[in-house]
Amino acid sequence: MGEVMKEANFSLASVKFTTAANINSLVLQNVTKAQRKVKTDKENVAAYELTGLAGGGQQIDRLKKNYSKAVDLLVDLASLQTSFITLDDIIKATNRRVNAIEFVIIPKIERTLNYITQELDEREREEFFRLASSDLSLQFIFELYILNFVLYLCVCRCLFKVLSY
Fold first, then answer.
1. Does some domain include residue 115?
2. What is the pTM of this model?
């Protein structure tokens, strides 16, 4: 981009140097008019006026090409800049969402899970204490344990008899 702008400005300087006339009239011409104009110039040589062509046509063409390139590059640059600004806004919004999830939502869920775990542990301790504090409950649990053991022994004997035959 810098090289194109440098070349365009150098072309403008060379046009101003080669044509003594004001080039604003050429620049302000409408595009629908002729693309190239030839100017005549009169030189006074030994008291005679000689009609000839004014110089600078090639430099003006070069100036036009260089500034066309520069304008095209500036349009591309402006398009990229707009895209970068939009992308930057999207990235900022995404970062805000990530931060909200990381610093608000996840800690809230972790606190809820800790609360649920504590409540379940508390209920388990209360139930164990309730069962352990009652003699009837302990006796009932012991009897169930013995009945399960006796049932297990009966099943084992039956299996042994079946397998023995």
1. no
2. 0.42
